[in-house]
Amino acid sequence: MDLKTMDLKTIDLNKIINTIKNKYGIEIKELEKKRSVYKLISDRNNIFCLKEVNHNFSRFKWLSSFLLYLKEKGFLNCPLLIKDNQNQFYFNVNKHKYYYLTNWIEGNECKIDEIENALNSIELLCEFHRKALGFNSKQLPYEEAKLIKEYIKKKDDIIRYKNLIMSKKIMSYFDILYIETFDTQMALAEKSLIYLLNSNYRNLNKNAIKNKVICHNSFYYQNIIKSDNTLYLIDFDKIIYETVEYDLGKFIQRMMFRKSYNWQFDKAKLLIDKYCKCYGNNIDYKLLLSIIIYPHKFWKLGNKKYDKKKNLEESYYIRRLKKIITNNLSILNFINEFDKYYINKNI
């Protein structure tokens, strides 16, 4: 058997191979780690995807039903779970790890730096939102006023990181940089929160929960596979009930930090207008802007450094913080252009 980049710390290889053989009748001859999944090639040269899930089973047992729901609604741009010989979709080799199989989608991660691919990805997201609407499961997570609680907590975290740094007798270079850009990032967090509180988010969030509006919650190029000229969406383990602006805003924010987009409002406008045209309903632009501009990356960096205490090279933290700092002025210009075009225009 050819084993490439196998992560033996997270997978009991022999048990899984034997389980797949016994439960699915599939003899595995090759297995290769691909990001968070495993590519399996059988002795008949059929290719499968093996996904490991570390959640409690109740947190993802809805997945097979959800993917079938998408298929019934006409969304065919995703894989389906494969049943074993006892009509089960999942198997486990210990109490804490579950696995499932799908067919492997042969293709590459979508190159979203190309605007045409980005626009097609937006169309895929819109179609997913439309077709996923109405899926009902008691196991799917949701939270009333989720974003408001999240933004306030992260803002408090950032203040706590500052206080932690200021209590140090000796500061690192990263500490100094974090303090120097603190006021700018805090102002951005406050501005984002103002847009959020002045939006219709509370009602939209309640309606999303009531009407079963689904967000993918991990929509980015790693989970968009381009095969020939067709885009496929994968990795649905994190879906939640939430307003559609949540997916759209997070996607655009991540795009804007890429060099090819660099907080250019005209490019964001293309993506937003594409979504609105496809979705057919108005979106809340104040809510969308609040999601796009929230200093999540600044918070996340502090969270890694001061809470999770990730043992990473200091250069890693410094490089990422400098990238955030270099975008400060561009983000402010972006806010002004967005506000002028989408928000003040609609007053």
Automatic annotation (TrEMBL):
Species assigned in the record: Caloramator proteoclasticus DSM 10124
A cellular-component GO term for this protein: endospore-forming forespore
Key word Hydrolase present: no
UniProt xrefs under NCBIfam families: spore_CotS
Claim: Calcium is one of the keywords in the record: no
Protein name: Spore coat protein, CotS family
Keywords: Capsid protein, Virion
Transmembrane segments: none
